[in-house]
């Protein structure tokens, strides 16, 4: 049995590890267009900031692939899948035969289309090698502009500041940052955290064009509202889109992402998909979404790994909104549906913010900023979607809830010792 | 086993207890371990029913109790309550003695004649009671009345405060810690530590000091002085010590606890020919009265009665299988005794209306009918002799002779009637200083190890040791109370001991008799015209465990004597309180506490302190 | 593998386990030293009240640990001994709080200033091979035992009983 995996990040690597544990004899080949062993993609802003190098964000060591007897083919792109003959064709023409295949190709940044966005100083931030390039350029750069108010953009902006770039501006089309994760008040706390280190925000606009200097180099950018900002480099963070072409070209079904059944199998028999390239159903809203979350990619990689190795395992609709981060001194967590709900409970204290969203007496989402301890208890309740007793709801609202309050429902879950 | 005691008899009896299936204090300690960290740090409070509360020592949880008390307040309140309990214990013991004196003077206690008329008269003079041409009974009646008044006096201060050097009295007045009445200070301490009263740790500690002083210069002093009047002032006497004093062929009676009132009578009752005859009829060669703990100290000081051991040996005495009765009164008597006794033939007889023990036989002691009660108790023991199971009897052979009985009067007599030879010896440096070594045993520390290590270091360095309580019994068992022990002393102390024929460690009595040590300190300070805090003195409680010890330590420090605690008091939960006790107090009362678990290091602290004090006095 | 088994019926809420845990993670390893340390030792066990009962909770070292899945740094991992730990793994904790966000027991701490998630790491064992919290428990409400399936069932029934009171 030979199992091929396209992709060497969260989903691909976890699947490989899972398969090896279940099937010691299986042949496993992992193919990735990125070079080197797997790294922690979410930490690439730390490379940009200059606090870690690529080995410093390693997610697996070279030794791991040997220990797990995984044939890693890194730095090579797969050009096509032949689903009928169970063959992969690599760029350069080599053909790999597989018995089962996992597509864990991830996602790619949405590319901007304004004039000058193709200049070498205009970056997206998705890979470690991009981060290394930006870091090099940032050394001699007095000003940088970041487009987008999402996590990647803000992490990039904070990293650039940390790297020593004097002026860092963030252009946000929406009324506040982190629209998907936070509300106005909690976003305000996080914004203060960023402005306190000198980052400037421009709201309600976007980038319109790059303005070049005499030698063709990027000098500044023009905003849609006509304002101009000096910029030695630009980082674009306008979201990602699933890498689903291989499946589409092989005849598989795709929508916004690759479509999979509850076993994470694509419409092509024997071909599974997991991670940022697939589309899933959100457990809270029921909506079809591409989530792009590391933690879900790991989870899906493990489930796909089980199925690939012949242990049938279903993947229930996941909670697709699970974010936590800290830039400066304000940690924050956002889980589930933080916009909807029929009842809200908001707590605001000194530097602490907590918002709970209920629907039909169930916790459907929450935001915590400033203080995040025991957030997992809330997350668990969002996942459980259980009707809340009045005392438990009280404890949730006043922030007193602990793991002890929900022990009974926890142990009914799988996977708890 | 050797981590439990340095005393071979203890080690042997622990072994026997184990094979007999007896649970002892060390087993119970193990069952309690690990002990509560909040308790160890003194940061739990049960003073009101909004609680119980505790402060997180790592600042990770609650920093205040429900009422708002912080760690400083809680630690200080707990400490003051411990002092109050200790002061109450010594003082109530004292009250018992005065009551007996009163009953004697009223003619209601025929078995308690006044034994030391000279002391009675001297005390009467202190109280300005007319002596000339009056009968002993009348003087005693007046004295007992006046001393009883000390418990609730309204004159503003206790009589014995007048014994304190002028400078110290002025200091106490300026700090407003002169004790005003024995009961009053305990009551006020309980009041101040009630929820929502005194919340300032400094103010609380000062009240703790005043309460302790009402013990050291009040309740304890009264217990000592009036016991001397009733039972005789001790003078040098010899005897034997340790579990080896028990006799396989005799009726063994152990008198255990703290008061001399009943025990002194029992010593006499056991010499009653009729009871001796009954004993012989049972096959016993005689009646062997032994002491234990401070009751033991009271009767050994006055009668040279054998002392069977100190605090940690009370259960082990029963384990010998050879004890026919243990007569207990008050304080430091383990509630486990009846349980241990139930595995042997030993009768536990409680005698104080204040202290009853489930499983023990209670024969209420009545001073009006003391001898009859004593005879009844001795007879019970005699009758119980035939219940002994010879196969369970194993008396360790360990015993050691001692010389005790060093009351202030006895010391003066040894010195030829004046303190001057002592003062001269201190001046010349043949005695570099004096350290009072007192206090308990504590199963958390190897029995007697700290006492003995500490004492040996000191005498080696020409420091005269005066001891009381279980510390003194530890010294007795190891031969340090013999004049021959002078060979372990430094050259200066050795020559003083040899010329006076005294041991380098002077046994001054029971724990209330620490008041004797205070009298010596005050008297020496008065001879030199300085404050007590100027003298090359120190106190130490190397193995302390009881609340009484907390009170003692506090009145010793408040009297100006540097005091080393060998076990850690529950105050470390408040840096402020710990800081006040171990350094801040120097500026307030001229003395501090030190805490040092290693007895050798503790000895060094005492030696350095004495060196510094000598230097300040211009002595080499 | 041995687990820390919690018997809520015996827990008096004395917090001895919390203190012992903090002390075991201090430099001096003893209470009286630990209270004086500048870097305050941090406990990884929490005594909570649930309904009328007390429960001491620390990391359960879950078989399928959500915190391992969630860790974006590759720091949270399963050790060779089967424990879940965020030190000594491939990556280094970056303080992103993903693990805090997904731990249903709420027993991973966020040390915000140090940007470090802290949890039960069992680096508290002594020669008795029992964790500090277990050794400290005066009522044996905490036990360190191999839990078989039968006991799991019993525990579940017990937890269900609490559940009816509190949830």
Provide a concise account of the structure shown.
Chain A is 26% helix and 28% strand. By secondary structure, chain A is an alpha/beta fold.
Topology of helices and strands:
The complex is a heterotrimer of chains A (about 425), B (about 625) and C (about 170).
Chain A: E1 2-6, H1 10-22, E2 27-32, H2 44-49, H3 62-67, E3 70-74, E4 78-82, E5 87-90, E6 95-97, E7 100-103, E8 107-109, E9 122-124, H4 128-138, E10 143-147, H5 151-163, E11 167-172, H6 184-195, E12 199-203, E13 207-212, E14 218-223, E15 228-230, E16 233-236, E17 240-242, H7 245-250, E18 271-273, E19 280-281, E20 288-289, H8 294-308, E21 322-326, E22 331-336, E23 343-349, E24 352-359, E25 362-369, H9 375-384, H10 390-397, H11 403-411
Parallel strand pairs in A: 1-2, 1-7, 2-3, 7-18, 9-16, 10-11, 10-16, 11-12
Antiparallel strand pairs in A: 4-5, 5-6, 8-17, 13-14, 14-15, 19-20, 21-22, 22-25, 23-24, 24-25
Chain B: H1 8-20, H2 25-32, H3 37-41, E1 44-45, E2 53-54, H4 71-105, H5 117-126, H6 136-149, H7 166-175, H8 182-192, H9 201-231, E3 237-241, E4 251-257, H10 261-269, H11 273-281, E5 287-292, H12 293-303, E6 307-309, H13 314-319, E7 325-328, H14 337-341, E8 347-350, E9 361-362, H15 370-384, E10 400-404, H16 408-414, H17 420-428, E11 433-437, H18 449-460, E12 463-468, H19 469-477, H20 491-500, E13 505-509, H21 514-528, E14 537-541, H22 547-558, E15 563-565, H23 575-589, E16 593-595, H24 599-616
Parallel strand pairs in B: 4-5, 4-7, 5-6, 7-8, 8-9, 11-12, 11-14, 12-13, 14-15, 15-16
Antiparallel strand pairs in B: 1-2, 3-10
Helix pairs in contact in B: 4-6, 4-8, 4-9, 4-22, 5-6, 5-9, 8-9, 9-21, 9-22, 10-15, 18-24
Chain C: E1 2-6, H1 16-24, H2 31-34, E2 46-50, E3 53-57, H3 66-70, E4 77-78, E5 84-85, H4 98-102, E6 109-111, E7 116-118, H5 132-136, E8 142-146, H6 149-166
Antiparallel strand pairs in C: 1-8, 2-3, 4-5, 6-7
């Amino acid at each position: 049995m030979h199992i091929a995996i396209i992709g060497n990040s969260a989903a691909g690597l976890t699947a490989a590890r899972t398969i090896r544990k279940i099937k010691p004899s299986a042949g496993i080949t992992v193919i990735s267009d990125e070079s080197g062993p797997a790294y922690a993609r979410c930490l690439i802003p730390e490379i940009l900031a200059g606090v870690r190098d690529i080995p410093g964000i390693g997610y697996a060591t070279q030794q791991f692939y040997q220990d797990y007897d995984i044939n890693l083919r890194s730095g090579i792109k797969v050009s096509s899948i032949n689903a009928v003959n169970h063959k992969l064709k690599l760029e350069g023409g080599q053909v790999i035969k597989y018995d089962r295949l996992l597509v864990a190709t991830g996602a790619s940044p949405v590319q901007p289309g304004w004039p000058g966005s193709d200049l070498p100083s205009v970056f997206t931030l998705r890979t470690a090698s991009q981060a290394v390039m930006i870091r090099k350029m940032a050394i001699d750069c007095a000003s940088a502009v970041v487009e987008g108010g999402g996590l990647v953009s803000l992490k990039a902006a904070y990293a650039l500041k940390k790297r020593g770039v004097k002026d860092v501006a963030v252009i946000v089309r929406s009324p506040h940052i982190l629209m998907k994760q936070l509300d106005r008040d909690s976003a305000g706390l996080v914004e203060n955290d960023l402005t306190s280190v000198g980052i400037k925000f421009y709201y309600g606009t976007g980038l319109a064009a790059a303005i070049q200097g005499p030698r063709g180099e990027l000098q500044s950018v023009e905003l849609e509202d006509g304002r101009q900002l000096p910029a030695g480099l630009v980082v674009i963070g306008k979201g990602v889109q699933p890498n689903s072409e291989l499946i589409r070209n092989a005849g598989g079904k795709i929508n916004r992402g690759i479509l999979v059944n509850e076993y994470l199998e694509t419409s092509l028999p024997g071909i599974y998909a997991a991670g940022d390239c697939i589309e899933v159903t959100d457990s809270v809203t029921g909506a079809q979404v591409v989530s792009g979350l590391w933690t879900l990619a790991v989870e899906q990689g493990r489930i796909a790994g089980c199925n690939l190795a012949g242990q049938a395992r279903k993947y229930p609709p996941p909670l697709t909104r699970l974010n936590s981060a800290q830039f400066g001194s304000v940690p924050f967590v956002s889980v589930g549906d933080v916009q909807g709900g029929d009842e809200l409970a908001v707590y605001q204290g000194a530097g602490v913010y907590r918002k709970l969203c209920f629907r039909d007496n169930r916790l459907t989402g929450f935001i915590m900023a400033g203080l995040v301890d025991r957030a997992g208890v809330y997350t668990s309740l969002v996942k459980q979607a259980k009707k809340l007793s009045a005392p438990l709801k009280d404890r949730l609202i006043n922030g007193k809830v602990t793991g002890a309050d929900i022990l009974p429902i926890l142990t009914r879950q799988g996977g708890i010792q | 086993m050797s981590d439990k005691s340095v005393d071979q008899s203890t080690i042997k009896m622990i072994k026997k207890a184990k094979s007999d299936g007896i649970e002892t204090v060390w087993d119970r300690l193990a069952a309690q371990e690990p002990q509560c960290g909040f308790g160890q740090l003194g940061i739990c409070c049960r003073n009101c029913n909004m609680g119980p509360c505790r402060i997180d020592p790592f600042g990770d949880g609650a920093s205040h109790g429900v009422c708002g008390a912080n760690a400083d307040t809680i630690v200080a309140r707990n400490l003051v309550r411990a002092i109050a309990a200790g002061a109450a214990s010594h003082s109530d013991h004292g009250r018992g003695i005065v009551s007996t004196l009163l009953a004697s003077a009223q003619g209601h206690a025929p078995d308690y004649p006044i034994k030391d008329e000279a002391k009675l008269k001297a005390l009467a003079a202190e109280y300005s009671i007319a002596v000339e041409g009056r009968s002993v009974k009348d003087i005693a009646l007046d004295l007992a009345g006046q001393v009883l008044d000390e418990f609730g006096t309204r004159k503003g201060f206790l009589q014995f405060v007048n014994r304190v050097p002028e400078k110290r009295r002025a200091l106490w007045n300026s700090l407003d810690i002169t004790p005003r009445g024995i009961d009053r200070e305990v009551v006020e301490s309980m009041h101040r530590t009630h929820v929502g009263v005194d919340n300032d740790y400094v103010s609380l500690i000062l009240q703790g000091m005043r309460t302790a002083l009402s013990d050291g210069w009040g309740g304890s002093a009264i217990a000592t002085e009036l016991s001397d009047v009733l039972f005789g002032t001790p003078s040098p006497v010899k005897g034997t010590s340790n579990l080896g004093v028990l006799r396989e062929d005799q009726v063994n009676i152990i008198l255990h606890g703290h008061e001399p009132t009943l025990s002194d009578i029992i010593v006499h009752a056991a010499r009653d020919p009729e009871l001796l005859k009954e004993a012989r009829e049972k096959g016993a060669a005689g009646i062997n009265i032994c002491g234990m703990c401070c009751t033991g100290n009271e009767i050994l000081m006055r009668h040279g009665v054998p002392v069977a051991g100190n605090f940690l040996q009370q259960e082990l005495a029963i384990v010998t299988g050879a004890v026919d009765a243990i007569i207990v009164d008050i304080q430091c008597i383990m509630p486990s005794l009846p349980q241990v006794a139930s595995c042997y033939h030993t009768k536990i007889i409680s005698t104080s209306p204040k202290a009853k023990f489930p499983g023990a036989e209670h024969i209420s002691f009545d001073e009006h009918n003391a001898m009859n009660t004593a005879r009844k108790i001795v007879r019970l023991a005699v009758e119980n002799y035939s219940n002994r199971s010879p196969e369970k009897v194993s008396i360790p052979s360990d015993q050691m002779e001692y010389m005790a009985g060093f009351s202030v009067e006895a010391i003066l007599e040894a010195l030829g009637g004046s303190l001057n030879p002592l003062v001269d010896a201190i001046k010349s440096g043949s005695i570099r200083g004096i350290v009072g070594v007192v206090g308990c045993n504590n199963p958390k520390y190897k029995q007697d190890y700290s006492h003995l290590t500490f004492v040996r270091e000191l005498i080696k360095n020409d420091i005269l040791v005066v001891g009381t309580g279980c510390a003194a019994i530890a010294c007795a068992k190891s031969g340090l109370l013999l004049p021959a022990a002078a060979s372990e002393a430094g050259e200066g102390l050795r020559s003083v001991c040899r010329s006076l024929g005294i041991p380098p460690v002077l046994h001054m009595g029971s724990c209330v008799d620490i008041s004797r040590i205070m009298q010596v300190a005050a008297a020496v300070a008065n001879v030199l015209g300085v404050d007590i805090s100027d003298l090359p003195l120190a106190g130490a409680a190397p193995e302390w465990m009881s609340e009484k010890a907390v009170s003692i330590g506090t009145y010793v420090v408040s009297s100006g004597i540097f005091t080393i605690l060998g076990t850690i008091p529950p105050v470390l939960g408040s840096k402020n309180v710990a800081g006040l006790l171990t350094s801040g107090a120097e500026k307030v009362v001229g003395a501090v506490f030190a805490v040092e678990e290693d007895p050798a290091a503790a000895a060094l602290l005492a030696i350095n302190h004495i060196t510094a004090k000598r230097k300040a006095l211009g002595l080499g | 593998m041995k687990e820390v088994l919690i018997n809520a019926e015996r827990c008096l809420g004395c917090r001895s386990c919390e203190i012992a845990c903090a002390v075991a993670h201090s430099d001096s390893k003893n209470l009286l030293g630990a209270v004086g340390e500048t870097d305050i030792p941090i406990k990884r066990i929490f005594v909570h009240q649930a309904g009328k009962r007390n429960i001491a909770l620390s990391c359960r070292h879950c078989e399928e640990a959500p915190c391992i899945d969630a860790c974006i740094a590759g720091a949270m991992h399963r050790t060779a001994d089967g424990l879940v730990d965020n030190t000594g793994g491939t990556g280094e904790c970056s303080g992103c709080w993903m693990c805090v966000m997904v731990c249903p027991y709420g027993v991973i701490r966020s040390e915000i200033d140090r940007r470090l998630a802290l949890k039960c790491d069992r680096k508290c064992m002594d020669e008795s091979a029992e964790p500090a919290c277990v050794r400290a428990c005066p009522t044996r409400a905490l036990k360190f035992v191999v839990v078989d399936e039968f006991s799991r069932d019993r525990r579940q029934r017990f937890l269900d009983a609490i559940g009816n009171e509190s949830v």
